[in-house]
Design brief:
alpha/beta, TIM Barrel, 17 helices, 10 strands, binds zinc ion
């Protein structure tokens, strides 16, 4: 056993676990998911909430975050939190007004806010016979084979990243930007958002934005609520943070295999039905978004297995921002996507990255040069590994839709 551990340790040391390119070159999934330490994350940990824990308040030492929350708090709609963080609404739904005054998606899939001033959720895409192509719950530590496959297909996608996963797997998050994928927010701890009080809901979004900025250098302008659980109070908080709400119309149920009677056959039938609906003309007026996941090796492999069928059935598979003709996907203006017309005219090239893909990760690696002496860095590295290991265990419990 000790011999095996030493062997594994030697193989890990032989890999470059300090750069995006080094991490992306690992093909052994056990090695991919072996914890590493990334100095910019280590240095910033005390300004973030605990990884994988629901955010209940802004950390006391984050004066910028607190000021930002207080600036919006008074104007947040007075809609009470619903149910529990794990999605038990049994004590709430029976007394909820059936007219759905909060436009609560979980209740009746409402996507048109009742509160004035809020934009409609994005649940489909305007371009006909087009799939808005995206994946939830990443970055997954063992995603190299999946991202390699997408790269071979010269296929870009929208990645909805969980803040805690970004902190655990920063080089994997960098790869998504480097590969030209679009990054959106999928909250800090992946709980039901309508259950959070205002400060917690703010923190779930704000610290995921901060994590993505810290690690990749970009600030997303889109988010997807875990389980689709959103109402006008949460939409308002997201909009104040510059985030557009993205949902879906079709569900692959890939996350749900083994639960609620869902099997791999169910998931395959969902993929088949989506492709058949293209042929049947259902998307001749407007395109579609299907919920699929970077959650585990099964969900990623299932997409690989079905990709040829989808690519044949649809006229176009594009990141959601491209389908929306949203050419500036991030707050940072030095980063642009092609228009839809331009993208499909030459889909073999990456969405154009003015300033190159290196601009995204450079801010993260730049911070590395400020690292402390080797003695203290070693000590920090060990404790971060423990934090990440605990986070992995907690995260495995928390993950879902
Ligand atoms: Zn999710």
């Amino acid at each position: 056993m000790i011999h095996l551990l030493l062997l594994l340790a030697a193989r890990v040391l032989a890999q470059d676990r300090t750069t995006e390119a080094g991490e992306a070159s690992i093909t052994d999934q056990t090695l991919e998911c072996t914890i590493y330490s990334y100095p910019p994350v280590v240095a910033a940990l005390n300004t973030f909430p605990p990884i994988w824990q629901p955010v209940m308040s802004v950390p006391t030492n984050d004066t910028v975050g607190r000021a930002k929350f207080l600036a919006m708090n008074a104007s947040i709609p007075n809609i009470p939190p619903k149910g529990t963080l794990t999605g038990d609404f049994s004590n709430f739904t029976p007394t909820y007004n059936t007219a759905d005054p909060d436009c609560w998606w979980t209740f009746h899939q409402c996507v048109t806010p009742k509160l004035s001033g809020l934009s409609m959720d994005i649940a489909n895409v305007p371009e006909p016979r087009t799939l808005g192509f995206g994946f939830d719950d990443g970055p997954n530590c063992s995603h190299n084979a999946f991202y390699d496959y997408l790269a071979e297909q010269e296929q870009k996608a929208t990645m909805f990243f969980i803040g805690s996963n970004v902190m655990d797997w920063p080089l994997e998050a960098q790869r998504a930007v480097s590969d030209g994928h679009e990054i959106c927010v999928h909250t800090w701890s992946h709980r039901y958002m309508t259950a959070f009080p205002n400060e917690g809901a703010f923190g779930e979004l704000y610290y995921t934005l901060q994590a993505i900025k810290l690690v990749t250098g970009v600030t997303p302008t889109c988010w997807r609520p875990p389980f689709g659980d959103v109402d006008d109070r949460i939409r308002y908080i997201a909009s104040q943070l510059g985030l557009e709400t993205i949902l879906w119309q079709y569900n692959s149920n890939d996350w749900e295999v083994g639960l609620n009677g869902v099997t791999t056959d169910t998931v395959q039938a969902n993929y088949d039905a989506l492709a058949a609906n293209v042929s049947a003309g259902l998307f001749d007026g407007a395109g579609v978004i299907m919920l699929t996941h970077e959650l585990n090796n099964y969900t990623m492999q299932t997409m690989i297995d079905n990709y040829p069928k989808l690519a044949t059935a649809f006229d176009h598979l594009v990141p959601i921002a491209v389908a929306q003709n949203k050419t500036q996907p991030y707050v940072e203006t030095n980063y642009t996507f092609q228009t839809f017309a331009s993208y499909i005219a030459n889909h073999t090239t990456k969405p154009s990255l003015n300033g190159s893909s290196g601009s995204g990760s450079s801010s993260g690696s730049g911070s590395q040069t400020t690292g402390t002496g080797s003695g203290s860095a070693g000590a920090v590295s060990g404790s971060t590994g423990l934090v990440a290991a605990l986070a992995l265990v907690l995260g495995a419990v928390a993950l879902g839709l």
